Structure formats: structure tokens, C-alpha cells
Amino acid sequence: MATKQNNVVNLSPQEGKQRKAFDTKVDVMIYGGAAGSGKSRLLLIKALKHAYQDPNFEGVMFRRTTGPLKGAGGLFTESKKLFRPLNPRIREKDMEIIFEGTGGGNLKYTHLEHEDTAEANHQGLNCSPYIK
């Protein structure tokens, strides 16, 4: 849930399953649910937890194609709306959100459409989490 009161932005998970997943500290998590159940929102606020304050954080959000990132309701589009109260620098062309004003890191949004080019396009990237 995103709320702003007295110039304080509160981006917190919904109580219940989303809160439990948010608080869980694991290397790999499998989290499912129906359309609109908050899976993407959970990914965003979980990544934000680190990106907001860790200058070494380099998060990457993958989707199969660019459409689900930039289209209406896409991950990058929704991130911009959700994170706007935090005043990050948004690089539209590179699909990147940078939290330099808070001493934080960044989140990059990209596609992984073709298995045969995945290694060439992403090999050697220094990323904190891989979030799909």
C-alpha cells in the first residue's frame, strides 16, 4: 500500500500473504496468485527496500518482452507511479529508476525474450537480485 501523510511516504505490503512473503528472508521464492493479487507490487516494494538506501544495489526486473514493462499497467510504468513520491531520477530510454537523492542504488527493467541471446545481452552484469 502506498500512502503519503505529513510528507512521509509509506510503501508497505498488504497484510496477510503479501506481508509474509515480504518479511521472508530467502534466496529463492516462488510466489503465485491470480491476476491482480499483488505479485508485481510485492516484487517492486521488496526491491525498493534495498534500492532506496543501498548505493551498491543494482536490481534488475525481467519480463519476457518489453510490452509488459512499458505498456499500461506494465512493471516499469507502475514503478514510476509507485516510486514518484520518493523523487527518484527516471531514465525513460534506459528503463531505469535511480535513487541517488536518498543515497540508494537503482532498478533496471529489461526483457529476456530470446534464450539464444540472453547470455550475450546480460553476461557480466553485476546485479544484486534477479527478479522475474
How would the blueprint of this fold be written?
Elements: E1 2-5, E2 8-11, H1 17-23, H2 39-51, E3 58-63, H3 67-70, H4 75-83, E4 89-91, E5 96-98, E6 106-111, H5 115-122, E7 130-131
Parallel strand pairs: 3-6, 3-7
Antiparallel strand pairs: 1-2, 4-5, 5-6
Total strands: 7
Sketch the major β-sheet.
5 strands, mixed
The global form is globular
Mean pLDDT: 81
Question: How many structural units, i.e. domains?
Answer: 1
How would you describe what is shown here?
The chain has 132 residues and is an alpha/beta fold. It has one domain (2-131). The relative contact order is 0.18. The longest helix is centred in the middle third of the chain and has 13 residues, at 39-51. The chain has 5 helices and 7 strands.
